[in-house]
Amino acid sequence: MHRLIFTFLLATMTxxxxxxxxxxxxxxxxxxxxxxxxxxxxxSAIAMSAITPEADLILLPAGVFSAALxxxxxxxxxxxxxxxxxxxxxxxxxxxxxxxxSPMSELVIEGMRISxxxxxxxxxxxxxxxxxxxxxxxxxxxxxxEEDTLSVSLRVESSxxxxxxxxxxxxxxxxRDSAITxxxxxxxxxxxxxxxxxxxxxxxxxxLHIGSNGAVxxxxxxxxxxxxxxxVDTADADxxxxxxxxxxxxxxxxGNGGGMAxxxxxxxxxxxxxxxxxxxxxxxxxxxxxxxxxxxxxxDGNRGGSGGSSLGAVIATEPGANVAMTNVTFTxxxxxxxxVSAHAHAIGVVSTAASxxxxxxxxxxxxxxxxxAPGEQGSLLRISGSGAYVLLKNSVFDGTCLFNNGGSVxxxxxxxxxxxxxxxxxxxxxxxxxTQNQLRLGALADNGGFTWSAKPNTGSVAxxxxxxxxCLPIAGMDQRRYLRPAGGIGCDIGAVEVExxxxxxxxxxxxxE
Length: 513
Hints:
Elements: H1 2-14, E1 21-23, H2 42-49, E2 56-59, E3 63-67, E4 72-73, E5 78-81, E6 88-92, E7 99-101, E8 106-116, E9 120-125, E10 128-135, E11 142-146, E12 153-157, E13 160-167, E14 172-187, E15 191-200, E16 206-212, E17 215-219, E18 222-224, E19 228-233, E20 238-247, E21 253-256, E22 260-269, E23 284-286, E24 291-300, E25 303-304, E26 315-317, E27 322-331, E28 334-335, E29 347-350, E30 358-362, E31 365-367, E32 381-384, E33 389-393, E34 396-398, E35 401-404, E36 411-413, E37 416-418, H3 436-439, E38 441-445, E39 453-456
Parallel strand pairs: 1-2, 2-5, 3-6, 4-7, 5-8, 6-8, 7-9, 8-10, 9-11, 10-12, 11-13, 12-14, 13-14, 14-15, 14-16, 15-17, 15-18, 16-19, 17-20, 18-20, 19-21, 20-22, 21-23, 22-24, 23-26, 24-27, 25-28, 26-29, 27-30, 27-31, 29-32, 30-33, 31-34, 32-35, 33-36, 34-37
Antiparallel strand pairs: 38-39
């Protein structure tokens, strides 16, 4: 009796299908045919993989493969692996997605170049998608993971993809070491974790569109040549962007819906507005209800538009907006060639009694552009309207300010204006009318840290001269992440603590840690 039971169990076990490896041997896409070692198309291999409950592996050799019929629909967990994105290519002539993953399953695609006639190259609903070494040369193609009733996730590594859309209330999108032109995040609590991403647009594209209240983290990345490098379109976003550069964009960052964006260790250089954005600033257009926190940043060589009602060539703060910046340097910023404007060449703040706006500048270093029209005012800051809540603390203003319609500085302490007194600084707690020889502000240079900075030279009045309130806790590290104060002495005014030491000692002379 026991022998009969054992024989039955053994027979049952041998009938269970296990994970399998399928080698694709033909490049065309015939009507459904069996997958045999001598005659196996990609579509046939995918069909065979649906039989097993475990993850299967489909191998494609070097060559060009076609998907000429309906989308290649996977079923269950499967990995499709080519010989490398420079060796294996898949071309889809279907007007639908080239590859579609199944719900509750993981689809992994590795080592392939994929192009599709339709806009969507890969689509997964209620499942998981992983892309490694995937190249999509067609700039109109996109990858979509979308949540319907279940969770959805996307992971991209070492790939080049025109557009990625991560959609769903609990969607999760992880991007690593890839070139991705446009990233879209939508859903109540959809999350994004992007590291070492290059987002290079065409001059009319959006880099990162955030339409979710979930956590968004972007580090060590680059956004360039976008009409909108960052669009925050959410009411309560948790956004942190670190060690990232915004260079050569044709329009500013935008905010809608009241979310807050935090940017730390960031650079904004050579952003020049296009004709389409001629009335907008070059870097940031802060509108009603939006909040921005920018720390340890460089704004250099940006060229804004005519200003419209926003008054600022680089940053424009509209009524109801909220912007706070610490340890930031502004230098060589002005308007685009051919633009005539009487507004500020750096920051414009507009406010009304009904919609007050906020602008905080703590430990900022601001230098006027080298070329300005004779007698032109507002080289750094312009404030318009009686509702502006402007605080200027421990900052260097090497240039001029301008006020109209009842605009004024609400509070200013421990700051310097050179060469005159146009910024409304209280002479009892600030330094005004400082000559250039007294200021002795150095040129923009690599003084350590993520971004370049303007370091006061020996003998500068900015050194050790922070007055009221001393070093602010929010500015405990300078623009370079050097600790304040240096040697227990009073803090330096501006973005750089001259004798400060790095927060974390550098291992190598070139700053690599």
